[in-house]
Amino acid sequence: MPDNIPPPSPSRRRFVGVATATVAAGTMSRPAFAETNQAITEVVQPAGGDKTAIRPLRVHVPESQLVDLRRRVKATRWPDRETVTDDSQGVPLAMIQLLARHWTTDYDWRKCEAKLNALPQFVTEIDGLDIHFIHVRSKHENAMPLIVTHGWPGSVIEQFKIIDPLTNPTAYGASASDAFHLVIPSLPGYGLSGRPTTSGWGPDRTARAWVVLMRRLGYTKFASQGGDLGGIISNVMAKQAPPELLGIHVNFPATVPADIIKAIQAGDPPPSGLSDDEKHAYERLSINAMKRRGYAIEMATRPQTLYGLSDSPVGLASWLLDHGDGYGQPAGALTSAVFGRTVNGLSPGELTRDDLLDDITLYWLTNTGISAARFYWEIHFNYLLAADVSVPAAVSAFPGENYQAPRSWSEQAYHKLIYYNRPDKGGHFAAWEQPQLFANEVRAGLRPLRQG
C-alpha cells in the first residue's frame, strides 16, 4: 500500500471490506506470524506479497494453548512462604496464589480476544520487522492524529479504556474539537509485533519506525503520547524532531537535572535550596534508585537469563507484577487490582484482576517475556535525565508515578512546555487506573497544538 493512501475507516464494515477485498486478491493465512506468535493470529496476505502493506489482523488462540496454560499454572511448584509479614521480599505467596486460582478457574481469555478483534487491528513491516497496531479513526472532522505507546509490563491492552473517550469525546462531555485519530502500536518484541532477531531495536529505532508508520497511514502531521517506555519513545521522537511531529504528551517525563542524578547516584542527601516539590521528587527518586530497580537492572544487563518467563506462567506473572515496591507505588494499583480492593491506601481505580490477566496472558501466548525484557537492554542512556527538547510538550505529573516531576524541572527539560498539571490521583499506569482522567489530561495537554 503506498504511503500516501488515506487511512482506513475504523468501522467494522470497512474492516471486513478490506479483509474481503484483500482475500479476493490474495489469501488469508497464518504463516506470517506462525513463528512469532505461535499461530495465534490470522493475517490478510496482499497480492504480490508486499510486507509493507497495511494488512488486517485477527487474533484466535487455539483452545489447546489455553488448556496448556491452565495445566501449567495448576502444576506450579510453589516455594515456601516469605519469612516476613510484609512485601519486602517480593510478591507475597498468598497474592500470587490468589491470582493463579483466578487464572485457572474464573478467568476467560476469550473476552479479551473479542475486545481485540472488535478493534481495527493491522500489521505492517517496518525496517524488516512486523509491527502490530490498532488504528481507530474518529468520526469527528479535524481530529488530531495521535500515536500512543504503551510501556513495560504493558501492551496495547493498557489503552483499551481510553480509545473511545479520545476518539469519541462528545460521548464523555468533551468537545468534538478535542477528538483524536488513534494509532496504538505494540512495541517491537511485545504482544503481537514481531520479536527482533538482531540487536538494535531500542527507543531511537522505534521512534523512527513510528514516524514511518504514521506516514504510511497517510498522516502528515501528528502528536505522540506515552508513559513508561512510551514516554521514553515520545521524548526520543521529540529530540529527533521529525517535521511531521506537532508535539508530545508524556505522563512519564524526563525532567531530572544532571546534578540531581549525580547526587542520587552518590547517595547524597537532598541538595540545599530545593523547593518542596523538588525535595519530594528527590526523595522518591532516591528510594527508587536504592530499592526498586532490581528488575530493571536484570533486564538491562541479562535479559536472556530470564528463561522462567517463557516456561512458567506463574513465573511470568510474578515478574510482570513486581516493580520492587509491592504495596507502594508505582505497583500499588497492580497489587490492589489482584486483591480486588484498596491496599495500603492505594486504590486500583478502574484496573481489575482480569485486566492484569489479559495483559499477562498476552505475554504468555505470544512468548514475549524475554523479547520484551530485551528492550531495556537496548536503552543506552539515562531516561530520567532532562529531555532537552524544543518540540512543544505537555506533561501530566501523576501523584503515584515513580516520581512526581516538579514544574520547575519540567520547564527546564521541555523548552516549549505548553501544559503542565498535577492530577490528584492516578499513578504509573494512569491510562489503566484512571482512563477518564487520563483522557482529560491528553485532551487538555495537546489542545494548544490545535490552536497554533
Automatic annotation (TrEMBL):
The record's keywords, sorted A to Z, are:
Aromatic hydrocarbons catabolism, Hydrolase
Cite the PROSITE patterns for this sequence: TAT
Question: What are the catalytic residues?
Answer: 228, 376, 428
A Pfam family (short name) is EHN
Domain Epoxide hydrolase N-terminal positions: 54-158
Please give the biological process terms from Gene Ontology that the record holds: epoxide metabolic process
User: Which GO molecular function annotations are given, in alphabetical order?
Assistant: epoxide hydrolase activity
Q: Which family does it belong to?
A: Belongs to the peptidase S33 family.
Which protein is depicted? Epoxide hydrolase N-terminal domain-containing protein
Which species does the entry assign this protein to? Pararobbsia alpina
